[in-house]
Design brief:
With 307 residues, this protein is an alpha/beta fold. It contains eight helices and eight strands, in the order βαβαβαβαβαβαββαα. Bound molecules: nicotinamide-adenine-dinucleotide (NAD).
Length: 307
């Protein structure tokens, strides 16, 4: 066992399989006590079971680590408090939370049912709120503060078959940036050190196995070291960032800012003035998702005139 997280108390949601399991095992291997929180559901959120959370706890214990299983549903508000209370009652503090739990209900936007929308937004976005809220309430009262790590996706910038997932993942980026600002504002008033950051991973898991096109990918175990770093004292000053982690590559995302602007020639813009001047003065920004979609469709679609 190494000691990057020695004595820390960390909760990981979605820790029963895929990336969450790799994160939980890595945290325990670095000396953390770990709440293994997982509802044990199928990829669409159905058929809950406590078995996979128990299995990961057994795996950690068999390597000499310390862990507790919690088979709660992160979309339920009270689960946030249960996860945090489990860590605090067992080990006296909550030093970090990692929100990895997630589901998929894929459908084109024009066919999506209300339940497909609600369930995905509830598990991903509300799930992050439930855990972050309960964790921050404790962390701001601990002298040692703590770290929040959210899980977004490159799909936060757009997705054709997963508009619900994309919207929830975009919400997670904004929520995490807001948590980072909250952490900084508390710190400026004399509070403890706290941080909030997002990972946009790509890894071979059951969730990614049906992606219908070639993607750069890696293993769930490739993602875990970056999470450990963000939870550790060494990563304490990293705040409000989104990092893609895939295989051997780690990239930082840009921060949203206004790029170019134009001023109305008179007191207020008319639509005709906008129509004339917008293309010349500020134009549009290239949308990488749309450009990539056009490239992929050009590669896969039969061209008119060809068989
Ligand atoms: N695998 C990838 O390439 C990839 C890409 C982008 C983003 N992500 C994100 O990374 C995270 C992990 O994905 P994964 O590929 O390991 O998926 P996975 O399906 O292997 O694991 C997800 C885990 O979350 C648990 N879970 C689902 N709903 C839950 C709920 N309501 N409460 C508690 N636990 C719940 C499941 O039981 C499962 O163990 C997800 O948030 C996913 O959106 C993954």
């Amino acid at each position: 066992m190494a000691d990057f997280l020695e004595g820390k108390s960390i909760a990981v949601t979605g820790a029963g399989s895929g990336i969450g399991r790799a994160v939980a095992l890595a945290c325990a291997a670095e000396g953390a006590n770990v709440v293994v929180a997982d509802y044990g559901v199928a990829i669409d959120g159905s058929d809950p079971s406590s078995e996979i959370a128990d299995a990961v706890v057994a795996e950690i214990e068999s390597s000499g680590g310390v862990a507790i299983a919690l088979a709660g549903d992160v979309s339920a508000f009270d689960t946030g408090e249960q996860v945090v209370a489990t860590a605090c009652e067992s080990w006296g503090a909550i030093d970090g939370v990692v929100c990895v739990a997630g589901i998929l209900r894929e459908r084109m936007l024009f066919n999506m049912t209300e339940d497909e929308w609600d369930s995905v937004v509830a598990v991903h976005l509300k799930g992050h709120f439930n855990i972050y809220r309960a964790a921050l309430a404790r962390m701001r009262k601990q002298a040692t503060g703590g770290s929040l790590v959210g899980f977004t996706s490159g799909a936060f910038s757009a997705s054709t078959a997963q508009a619900n997932y994309s919207a929830a993942k975009g919400g997670i980026v904004s929520l995490t940036r807001s948590a980072a600002m909250t952490a900084v504002s508390l710190r400026l008033r004399g509070g403890p050190p706290m941080s909030a950051n997002c990972i946009a991973p790509v890894a071979r898991t059951r969730m990614s196995e049906n992606v219908p096109f070639e993607i750069e990918t890696g293993d769930a175990e490739d993602v875990a070291p970056m999470v450990v770093y963000l939870l550790s004292d060494a990563g304490r000053d990293v705040n409000g960032q989104t990092y893609t982690v895939v295989g051997r590559r780690i990239s930082v995302w840009n921060q949203p800012v206004e790029l170019r602007s134009m001023e109305a020639p008179g007191d207020r813009w008319s639509p005709a003035e906008i129509a004339e001047l917008l293309p010349k003065e500020i134009g549009q920004e290239p949308n990488p998702m749309i450009m990539d979609l056009e490239r992929r469709m050009a590669e896969t679609t039969t061209q008119p005139g060809k068989d």
